[in-house]
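Input.
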Amino acid sequence: MICFLGPLDPFPPVEQAREDMGGLLAAGGGLHPERLLDAYRQGIFPWGTVEGHPLWYSPDPRMVLFPEEFRLTRSLRKTLRAGKLEVRFDTDFPSIMDACAATPRAGQDGTWITPEMKAAYIRLHELGWAHSVESYEGGRLVGGLYGLAIGRMFYGESMFSHRTDASKVAFAHLIAYLLDNQFGMIDCQMYTDHLASLGGREVPRDLFLGRLSALTVAPAADAKGAENSQRTVWPKDRQILDW
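Output.
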C-alpha cells in the first residue's frame, strides 16, 4: 500500500518504496518549497501526479553522474570549440521548463511537468534553489536543462534539445561549473541510455544516500551568510571555457 501524505506528514522511510512500481514511495503532501527541499535532501523526488496529488519516488538503484566522470566525446568537444551556441545560466527558467514539458519522450504519454509542477519549480527558482542552463543559437533558445542545487549536490530534472548537441553543450557547461565549485554528485534519478552515454551510472540507494547526506549539508562554495549557506549564486553571463 502506498502512503498518502497530508500537508504536514513526514515522508515514510525510503526503504518502503515499491520496487515493483519503479521506486514509488508516497503520494500527496503538496508541492510547497519546504516539502520539495525536504524530499530532495532525503533522496526523494516528485514525478507525475494522480488527481492533482504528486507522486514521490526513491528508486534503488539510483542513476547518478559524478562530475569528474563526465564523458566528453571528441565530437562534443569539437562542437564546444566551434562556439556556435551561446550558453547562459538562469536567464529564462520558465521557458526551459516549457520546452522540457513540450518535448516528446520515448515511452512517455504526455508530460509529468504539469502547471502545478511548473509553478512549484519556478518558486524554487525565485528562492535561489532551482537553476537552468540554456543554449542559444542566434538568440533563439535551442536546448538546455534545469535542476536544483543544495549545498554541493545537484539534482537534474529534465533537458531538451531542438538542435544537435544543444542539451549536451548546456550539460558540459553545467559540469564545468560544478567542478569549479566542488560539487560532488548529480542525481539523474533513473537510468537512460542518454545519461549513461554522458558518464552516468547506477549505484545502490544506500551509497547514494550516504553521499547525498554529506553533500547537502556542505556549504556552497560562494555562499554568503549562514542562512544561505546551502544556496549557490549562479552565473548569468556566457561561459568562456577552454575546451
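The longest strand covers residues 140-150.
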